[in-house]
Amino acid sequence: MIRQQNRDWGLLGLKKLVDEVRADNGNLHRLYEYTDAQVFTKMRMLHDKLDPQVKKWRLSRKRLKKEQEENIYINDCTKIIMDGQVSDSILSAQKLIDIKRSAKGDKKNQFVKRLTKEAEAIKKNIAVKLKISGRRIKPYICTRALMKYEEVRDTSGRPDEVRNKETVRLYDRYATGERNSVVFAAESAASILKHLIDKELVTFNVYFVEPTKCQDEHRRERIRVSFRGLVDKYFR
Question: 92 and 208 in one domain?
Fold first, then answer.
C-alpha cells in the first residue's frame, strides 16, 4: 500500500508523512489516513482489486510469476487481517537470558544472532520441501528486558539516599553483613526479584500465513516438526 501511493488504496509512508507535516505543506489532513477506519477502507480496496485476479491465477495450471505469487500472498494477508483470523503461532518458546556482559561479549545478542541464523536456514529448507513461498513462514524473535539493577548501599543521612528511598527492603534473619539483616529485595534469596534482575526474556514464535481456502494441518505439522529441534536446542 505504501509502495503504490498513486492508487486508490495507496498509503503514505510514515516517515514521508511526518516530513510533510513538519514542513507544513498543507497536508495535515493526510494524518487521517492512519486511523483504523481509513486503513481498513484502503485495505478493502486493495483486496477487491486483487481477489478476482488471484482466483483466476489459482485456477490456472500455468507456473506463476514471482509478482503473481507476491500478490497472492498480499491478498491472503489482507483477508486474514480484515476477517480478524490471525492464527496463533505454530510453535512457541521462552527463555531468560543473563544480560550482564561477559568477557566474550553480550550473551543475549550472541544467543539471538545464532537463533536467527538457524531459524532462517530452517525456514528456507522447509519452504522448498513444501513448495511454498518462504515469506509465508515467519520465525519471530522478541526480547524484553525485565529488571536492571545496580547494587547500592544504605546511605542514610547522605544526599543520594533520596534517590534510593523507594528501594524495597526486606528483613532477612539469615542475612549477613553490615546492614543488620535488612537487605534490598533484589539481593535477598527470599525474593523472586533476585532471580529476575539483569535478565532478558527471549520469546520465539513461528507463524504460518496459510493460503486462503487451502488450510492443511499436515503442512502446519511439518513446519512445526522442522523447528522443534531448534527449540529443543536453545530453549530446553
Answer: yes
Q: What is the pLDDT of residues 136-178, one digit of tens each?
A: 999 999 998 777 665 555 555 555 555 555 567 777 776 665 5
Q: Which parts of the chain are beta strand (E)?
A: 91-98, 137-147, 169-171, 182-184, 199-208
Cα(76)–Cα(7) distance, integer angstroms: 19
Bridge partners, residue 170, by sequence: 183
Q: How many CB atoms lie within 10 A of CB 231?
A: 18
Whole-Å CA distances, 122 to 70, 147, 158: 21, 33, 57
Q: Record the cell numbers describing residue 226, joined without a space.
A: 522442522
Judged by DSSP in three states, 141 sits in strand
| Cell matching residue 172 | 532477612
Distance CA 197, CA 47 (A): 47
Q: What is the pTM of this model?
A: 0.71
| Average pLDDT rounded to a whole number, residues 43-59 | 90
Average pLDDT, the chain: 81
Q: Residue 235's pLDDT band (boundaries 50, 70, 90)?
A: very high
Rounded distance, CA 3 to CA 22, Å? Answer: 22
C-alpha angle 133-34-2 in degrees, rounded to nearest 5: 40
Question: What's the total number of domains in the chain?
Answer: 3
Q: In terms of domains, do 133 and 60 share one?
A: no
Say yes or no: 95 and 62 in one domain.
no
Q: What are the strands, taking DSSP E only, across 153-216?
A: 169-171, 182-184, 199-208
